[in-house]
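User: Predict the full complex structure for these chains.
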Amino acid sequence: MSRVSVFRKEHFNAAHRLHNPEWSGQKNEEVFGKCNNPNWHGHNYEVIVKLTGEVDTNTGYVYDMKKLSDLMKELVINRFDHKNLNLDAEEFKDLNPSTENIAIVIYNLLRERIEDEYEIKITLYETERNFVEYPV
Amino acid sequence: MSRVSVFRKEHFNAAHRLHNPEWSGQKNEEVFGKCNNPNWHGHNYEVIVKLTGEVDTNTGYVYDMKKLSDLMKELVINRFDHKNLNLDAEEFKDLNPSTENIAIVIYNLLRERIEDEYEIKITLYETERNFVEYPV
Amino acid sequence: MSRVSVFRKEHFNAAHRLHNPEWSGQKNEEVFGKCNNPNWHGHNYEVIVKLTGEVDTNTGYVYDMKKLSDLMKELVINRFDHKNLNLDAEEFKDLNPSTENIAIVIYNLLRERIEDEYEIKITLYETERNFVEYPV
Amino acid sequence: MSRVSVFRKEHFNAAHRLHNPEWSGQKNEEVFGKCNNPNWHGHNYEVIVKLTGEVDTNTGYVYDMKKLSDLMKELVINRFDHKNLNLDAEEFKDLNPSTENIAIVIYNLLRERIEDEYEIKITLYETERNFVEYPV
Amino acid sequence: MSRVSVFRKEHFNAAHRLHNPEWSGQKNEEVFGKCNNPNWHGHNYEVIVKLTGEVDTNTGYVYDMKKLSDLMKELVINRFDHKNLNLDAEEFKDLNPSTENIAIVIYNLLRERIEDEYEIKITLYETERNFVEYPV
Amino acid sequence: MSRVSVFRKEHFNAAHRLHNPEWSGQKNEEVFGKCNNPNWHGHNYEVIVKLTGEVDTNTGYVYDMKKLSDLMKELVINRFDHKNLNLDAEEFKDLNPSTENIAIVIYNLLRERIEDEYEIKITLYETERNFVEYPV
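Assistant: Here is the predicted structure of the six-chain assembly.
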């Protein structure tokens, strides 16, 4: 049988701030620069889920892309779109919403709901020029 | 002599909220939907300045693009990048930071510093799918 | 008051064939080349509506972009997405579905439902390298 | 010696329909939704071939990109561009033209003509938001 | 009858240098900066031709896009692709190959061969962030 | 602990020529075609550095993206932007500046300055349709 990776891209727009509450204001500014602005800033995030599995010979599908898109909307877009990641999202109450950490959170949310027979990987674009992948 | 339009694109990332303080919370939510989130959300804005004028026969330039880029950085990017438009920008203290109004503000900021012999127009992308032009 | 143009982009995927039933097969092939394939071919169309009007001082909006997006979905996307333009769309029963004609049809569909105080213009991408605008 | 991967992107426009002839019309519609439209729909496909091998010290090339482009045109673009994948392509007479299966077919066509010393991988975009990779 | 604008995009890769031979080396460097490098630098240029005219009711076309593409290849791409604009192109022997001037040259080359009933306009991208339009 | 890959994209514009000095002019033209133009041609190169490592729990960062961007500017952009790779860059005095070799050179320049605990990989776009990755 044939293993194929399928990819689905969705997007959300959110505000955030990078900040470590255990550090002084000065250290936060040194480390995070303008990303530490106490009044927040924001991004148009693009999230791609890569899902790898066997091609079903009845459908020619690895996974129903509408189902994957709906799952991304339910678990990721509805949760983060037009939100403040630090204030509105339970997941970042005690976790700095760096692109790295947002990708890990998205992975964990999807991993719980996608069967183990499928490998998944998250690519998250904060801007066209800054992006991350998890797991490696 | 030949008139040509030249374009320069820059970007900035900002948080904002759409809100009319003269309206009830309910009306604000009806009109602005999720863009009214009191905790803000954000975007990667792309701004394009179109500048129209005569080609200088000594340089082949309508306008030095480095100078235009520097002017956009001084007047627009430094002012709005990694900022909260409602809280950090004087220009939106009493003006709703809709994409339309942000484009008008950017036009006015640049118009004061670019000589009258040049026509200018602003295109502002809030997302890849929503954008505006001013003046028409 | 300030006039601004706002733009909204949506997409649809459709099959079509270029063909003039009053011409011989040979002439159709000469004129339309591989676009005349009797078994159809298809495209991912991107459609941008440009809408020009006054900025409402209460909202900072020219037009509610969600309303524009919903109108595009109701009138354009639901009608053409995952359809065969020649066979499934009443509008092309007697009209060759060239990019030019599709743009004119989309303009007419939207013009009936958008108030006269707003000017509108359609940009339609058949591919990244071939696109049209109507009206000029 | 140094191993490098080189990539070449080409595109084709095609019509298709997702359908399992062993299933009822109702089941086909449940599984494939609007992709099951009996009158076909279509896409602008983007295909990327990744080819991995040693850098030739005389040329600095892993593989002549013009040769790779010509091979893609001969084996993939000429076969599928402006075609109906279900009706015009021998490869999909008994195989559902899902993005997964199209990628596998493209891989097999190229694998026969590219020497074994080169690994190859296919990325196929059906839309900007849906794409696949084979092999994994 | 209906007037529509059609657009075709092509690209070419070229080397160039901005330089005014009537100026000192110092003045050239002050005005053109790193674009004055005597050993040249280069770009991937994207050129879009906008052509406006009546839709032919027999074809649904304003202009045969294959004919427009062929004309662009004959007059523009074959002339400039993989060339040094200053050294290899007659048109820039005495004309600084600024983006503005390249666009004017391309316009003039096409204007001679496209019938007067069609208006044409050139958009030329030197980079994704720097581009020009002629005529205005 | 969590391993994540982070990516940063930068660009530079350069002239180059593909040429093997040990070959005849005729053989160079046969192998390299128009890329062998003795007067050079050029490209807008896009370079992406992928850096893989552990997420620091204090910052949520694998690596400070500003530091990575600065390093790319210091080592790559300042060295190659608006330059002739064959004439101005020490690295290509005896090495053909194919996309493959440029990527290897960039990798080696960055590898010396990025700590061994981080894996790095370079993706280099010569055009939107031709690109390479190193190491594989």
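The first strand of chain B starts at residue 3 and ends at 16.
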